[in-house]
Design brief:
single chain, globular
Length: 87
């Protein structure tokens, strides 16, 4: 998420089960997209396959390497399936 650009990190901490927490985090995420922000892949986010492909200039190259080292699918997850990383 930090490759190829100056980066500032923000951490938004919400108490599990807090009313409106997911909506608030989604609002921050959407606002930061307008500034070129990229959310952490391992955290809660609303990333889509189209966003992932457009946000990373060398994504196709990375996918080629990923296919090589993840041919068995051992690194697949719900996230990687949701955003189109897993094939």
């Amino acid at each position: 998420m930090m490759h190829g650009q100056d980066t500032m990190m923000m951490e938004l901490i919400e108490l599990a089960g807090s009313a409106g927490a997911l909506e608030l985090m989604n609002a921050y995420e959407q606002a930061l997209y307008e500034l070129g922000g990229r959310p952490h892949w391992g955290q809660i986010n609303a990333m889509t396959p189209d966003f992932v492909a457009s946000a990373y200039p060398h994504y196709a190259d990375w996918q080629d390497v990923h296919r090589t080292f993840n041919s068995s699918g051992v690194f697949d997850s719900a996230f990687s399936r949701r955003v189109g990383i897993s094939e």
